[in-house]
Amino acid sequence: MATTNFLFSGFGGQGILFVGKFLAYKGLIDDRQVSWLPSYGPEMRGGTASCSVIVSDDPVGSPIVSNPDVLVAMNLPSLDKYENAVVPGGMIFADSTLIERKVMRDDVKVYYIPATRLASENNIPTLANMIICGKILKALDDFNEESVKAALGKVISAKHADMLDVNLKAMQIGADYE
Amino acid sequence: MADKVLMKGNEAIAEAAIRAGCLHYFGYPITPQTEVAAYMAKKMPKIGGVFLQAESEIAAINMVYGVASAGKRVMTSSSSPGISLKGEGISYMAGADLPALVVNVQRGGPGLGGIQPSQSDYFQSTRGGGHGDYHMIVLAPASVQEMAELTVKGFELADKYRMTAMILADGTMGQMMEPVSLDFDVTPPPEKPWATTGTKMQREHNIVNSLSLVPEELEQLNFKRYEKYAEVIKNETRYEEYMVDDAEIVIAAFGIAARVSKNAVNEARAQGIKAGLIRPITLWPFPTAPFKKAAEHAKQFISVELSMGQMIEDVKLATECKVPVTLCNRAGGMIPSPELVLEAIKKAHKNGGVD
To answer: What is the CATH number of domain A3-176?
Structure first.
């Protein structure tokens, strides 16, 4: 009975909702049950954004993730807010370019990825989110290139088809980062 | 299996409406239902339909009245404060026996309230909302798939009974994405010989009106309308039961509250507590029968709601207060957690049905 509860959080504009949508689509393509729920509010670029994604072998009950198995914190306020909500044994992925402090807990697995720096060094400054996503899939042993490509095809409109390879490259950078 | 796509609940409503043959949409933006209007704005011009952002909610509902009078499938959508504004028009449509679909993606109230999910328009929807003796068929989806399917069903029921159907969703249902299959059957609209389509000098005038100044006549119209409602109650009540057969603690919940409650029921069962869930899909007509039946073996009912307790009154009526009915709720845009519901179940289990 495998269910993974993801919580993505960061600034508006970091592609938090996008990466969640990508993982939900990947789940759908992998023939699993999925839900995607954004925080919505009077928020804008630079404000906070978060979204809950559930990928499961069983029908999804509540779509709200309060205690994630996987937390992605792309800024410090997100880590401050959700660090203690992660289930024991869960995973935290932190963008260590933007978050200077370490995770306090010792009962979770922590991945520090300087995603914003890596994105900027590789000339893909808007894709820190997908760099982290690559690392997540690697850590979950779920980096299946075929379904990754298919899911990217679903979330990237035909108009921006050239972004497909760039996103894949970003994910590869994340997956390869040690 | 048909291809599934990921869609927001709001988008699923809009796409399903188009597939149901609704080519007329009138609305006014309001969070958290704006995606319905946005989707319609994008799609309608491409398929020869009408999308019109009215100057207000009141204008939009009166445009709906106009199209419904002409016999076409038509809809509007809004969120709580906007639905209050539409109340007058909805009552007029009831008085004129007009079929239409109204979507309410609820947010916290009263007043302008907030923009987070709520179920506190239950009374307004199931008791009428506008003035006068009338009902709407109120459908409460609990998944994006149901957002689509109940939209189609809403148009069909509205046409079948010449009355307004309402989709009563909430901010979560509107904003969340789930896989949805849009491969469903649609019953085309029936003939509408009453519609004001122009006489072409070949028939008597059809008159669509809610004004009736002779009390004897108005009384008869009300009697007749309630005979129709009796048919709706008999034929169209819908609900889902989950592990109710041997349940000692029975949850009553609809929409997002039912999703949360299902998690709690599963966890309670895992802990050896016989819990179950009755999920009304039609809020009006309310599914009285499964509650009455469950009251024969249940020790306690718990109404889980995103409100200060509104559906609980219908649960008490349906169970004739044979066993205690308690409330487990959050309000103002907050959502009960599965843990909160589980606590309520455990408490009920421990007390053995003592309120």
So the answer is: 3.40.920.10
Is residue B354 pLDDT above 90, yes or no? Answer: no
Please name the residue of chain B whose CA is at the shortest distance from the CA of residue A34: B178
Contacts of A56 in chain B (CB under 8 A): none
What pLDDT digit, counting tens, does each position of B113-172 carry?
A: 999 999 999 999 999 789 999 999 999 999 999 999 999 999 999 999 999 999 999 999
pLDDT in tens, B238-249: 999 999 999 999
Shared domain check, B165 and B27? yes
Q: Outline where DSSP puts E strands in B133-262.
A: 137-139, 164-170, 177-180, 239-242, 249-252
Q: In A38-68, which positions are buried (b, 16+ CB within 10 angstroms) versus exposed (e)? A: bbbeeeeeeebbbbbbbbbeeebbbbbbebb
Partners of A32 in the beta sheet? none
Which domain covers residue B154, as residue numbers? 5-193+204-236
Residue B30 and residue B128 share a domain:
yes
- Chain B hits for A61, CB-CB cut-off 8 Å, are 259-260, 262-263, 266, 338
